[in-house]
Amino acid sequence: MSQNLELTTTINLGHRRRKLHASLHHAVIMSSEEGLQSTWSYDYTKYHPMDEIYRWMEEVERGNPGLVSSAVYGQTYEGRNITLLKLGLKNSEGREKKVIWVDCGIHAREWIAPAFCQWFVKEIVNSYKTNKKLEQMLQNLDIYVTPVINVDGYIFTWTNDSTRLWRKSRSLPPQGSDCYGVDLNRNFNANWGTVGVSFDSCANTYCGKSPASEPEAKAVMEFVGGMAKQILCFLTIHSAGQLILLPYGHPEISAPNYNELVSVGKAAAAEMKKVHGMNYTVGTSPQILYPNSGSSRDWARLIGIPFSYTFELRDKGEFSHLLPEEQIQPACEEAYAGALSIIAHVHDKTFTDGTLPNAAVTTVMGFNTVSGVAMTMWCTFMTVLLTAGISV
Predict the structure, then answer these.
(1) Closest Cα partner for 323 from 72, 11, 9?
(2) Going by C-beta distance under 8 Å and a sequence separation of 6 or more, which residues neighbour residue 136?
(3) Could you report the per-residue pLDDT of 17-52, keeping only the tens digit for each?
(4) Residue 283 class from Cβ within 10 Å (0-12 exposed, 13-18 middle, 19+ buried)?
(5) Sheet holding 367-370, edge to edge
(6) Most buried residue, 71, 237, 257, 282, by CB count within 10 Å?
(7) Choosing from 312, 326, 333, 334, which is the catalytic residue?
(8) Which domains does the chain have, with CATH numbers?
């Protein structure tokens, strides 16, 4: 994600590429128990092309019917399915379940992100029966995991070495341009178009024609927005830089539960460091990276989801978006520890004292505003000023 970490030269990745399907081992699933084992026959220490990821999702669901289900909640610009896996157990009391959202692969070149989403599912599938705490959380929570949101872009990065560092979606260029795609993480309706974006369609941070102009961003907004009151936590996984980012990307706006977001993020970073000694920095994007707007993280907090974070996984610049496969396992192990730390916190808070914040009260240039309506008005005002060429 970080522009500071971008590689601007064509890099020969021939030695890292493999024949498609080489590491995909098909398991004949005869029962739920055997289906559990099928997650172990898939090589989680390799990067996988999209067709393998789709088949992996089918096998995990088929092998674990009591835990895993799937849903298609949108289509990409090129007409491919955006599919999630839902992980959760029934509870005997019939309590209403809350939701955790985890997504990966919104930026095409960040291959470690989809690798993590697959690792995350594998860890839960393989450990919930022997981990009482995890089992309890799955009885109270449904965890929605999207391994790849930007399916078109991700597939494009597998074309050849020259496309490997593609970031955006693959929507057609606007009139008068020959540059494809939109930065999907600048296309959400959260202070859209105000800071940290470009209106040049050839730029990597091109935010699109309007909020949710891209079908991928719109799909997330409609699906997540439709159950926002149930969602406790929104985690979106990126690379690189080893950061845990919290709302908001605009330097003049802060979340009402900012202090708690920081403390929970720092607790997650501490758990991550315990795994392999890697340091992760916690803060808002303007504090530790750069200002931006239109991100899914900010949008999630803005609609009232109390805990929203962006994980920027390994590394800090040596490989950036070209993280070697030998680092997949350690990167995913530490990220899993961090994610589980946050999920456990929001679970325990909800099902122990029920004191989660819900309104997205924010400070905007000295004024207090509450949630969507006022913020949308402010975003529209700012966009009009920018469109008119007025400096703000």
Answers:
(1) 11
(2) none
(3) 443 334 434 333 333 444 444 555 899 999 999 999
(4) middle
(5) 253-254, 361-364, 367-370
(6) 237
(7) 312
(8) 50-171+214-352 (3.40.630.10)
Query: Measured between alpha carbons, how far is residue 267 from residues 171, 246, 271, 337, 354 in Å?
Result: 39, 13, 6, 10, 20
pTM for this entry: 0.84
pLDDT digits (tens, 9 = 90+) for 319-356: 999 999 999 999 999 999 999 999 999 999 999 865 55
Concatenating the DSSP letter of every residue in 301-317 gives HHTT-SEEEEEEES-SS
318 is catalytic: no
φ/ψ (deg, to 5) at 338? -70, -45
Per-residue pLDDT, averaged over 273-301, amounts to 97
| Strand 243-246 to 81-87 pairing | unpaired
Please give the pLDDT value at position 390.
29
How many other CB atoms sit within 10 Å of the CB of residue 213? Answer: 15
Quote the strand ranges of 111-270, DSSP E: 141-146, 231-239, 243-246, 253-254
- Residue 301: closest CA among 373, 372, 368: 372
